[in-house]
Amino acid sequence: MTSAASETESTRDRILDVAEQLFAQRGLAGTAVRDIARAAGLTAPSLYNYFEGKQALYEAVIARGVQPLFDLIGSVARGTRRGEDRTGAMLDGIMDHLASHPDLARLIQHEALTDGASLEKIAQGWLRPIVSQGLVAMAQEPDPVWTEEERPLAVAAWIHVILGHFAMAPLLRSLFDFDPLAPDQIERQKRFLRRYAQLLMSGAER
Fold first, then answer.
1. How far is CA 72 from CA 154, 161, 162, 186, in A?
2. What is the pLDDT of residues 98-118, one digit of tens each?
């Protein structure tokens, strides 16, 4: 990569980082391009050299955040791991990715709470394929714990548990006197999720 191309990519990533944070705080409608540009150290006209407009920038933020999750789940599902190993690898990967983009969960939550204009596109264009892969994987388990009717509820519960760790970080920090986004707490949450998955999928009680 040339120096100019590297600088362009670096600037683009900086814009996306700033936009992700501001969109999470204010939503799409409440965030102005000039505010994103200012926080990224640019002018509004220069930002348009990288993105056509606010909607295109918003969609790029979502794509950068959600596409790796889709790729991860697909890769683990196609792999040779089975059972607890597969579930654990998937959970660890999701947590690691969200830890590197902690505002993504808040952005999705903001859209859900405000019934934002982009919620349907986020749900149908990005999250539904991930959810569909999860449902297919559950249906393929040799001894499924959940009935067909219960599977969507089980996936919904996982969405709450995983996204909630990041979206509700300020509340959790105040309640439990630890930083949910600190590296040691991310590792603790990963261990908890593995244990939680074992309990949910053990089939001990039906």
1. 20, 18, 15, 18
2. 999 999 999 999 889 888 888
The residue type of 6 is S
pTM of the full predicted structure? 0.85
**Amino acid occupying residue 9:** E
Task: List pLDDT tens digits, range 9-37.
Answer: 889 999 999 999 999 999 998 999 999 99
Distance CA 82, CA 142 (A): 11
**Residues 188-206 pLDDT 10s:** 999 999 998 887 766 544 4
The C-alpha atoms of residue 94 and residue 84 are separated, in whole angstroms, by: 15
Two structure tokens written together for 77: 């599902």
- Among 146, 145, 149, 152, which residue's Cα sits nearest to residue 127? 152
- The first and second tokens of residue 176, run together, are 């439990």
Produce one character per residue of 44-82: b if its CB has 16 or more CB atoms within 10 Å, e if not: eeebbebbeebeebbbbbbebbbebbeebbeebeeeeee
The pLDDT assigned to 83 comes to 66
Residue 178, SS3? coil
Query: In this structure, which topology does domain 55-201 adopt according to CATH?
Result: Tetracycline Repressor; domain 2 (1.10.357)
Interatomic CA distance for residues 152 and 16, integer angstroms: 32
Sign of CA dihedral 147, 153, 159, 164: negative
Q: Nearest Cα to 131, choosing from 102, 97, 163, 170?
A: 163
